[in-house]
Amino acid sequence: MKFCDLTQFYSPLSGGVKRYVHEKIAYIQSETEHEHVLVVPGPKTE
Fold first, then answer.
1. For the segment 24-41, what is each residue's pLDDT rounded down to a tens digit?
2. Phi, then psi, of 16 in degrees rounded to 5
3. CA pseudo-torsion sign 12, 43, 41, 46
């Protein structure tokens, strides 16, 4: 199974969303054989 998180509110420096997602990824990787995909916005383009 593959899990996917999609969020607009992910900060590479800190924040509650980042912590939640990284804890979820760590659990999925250590406790299951499933995969996880994280989709976040990239750098701003003009």
1. 999 999 999 999 999 998
2. -65, -40
3. positive
Measure Cα distances from 27 to 2, 14, 35 in Å. 14, 19, 11
Give residue for tokens 């607009």.
Answer: 8
Contacts of 37 (CB under 8 A, 6+ apart): 2, 3, 4, 5
Q: Are 31 and 24 in contact (CB under 8 A)?
A: no
CA–CA dist 14, 12 (Å, integer): 6
Distance CA 30, CA 15 (A): 23
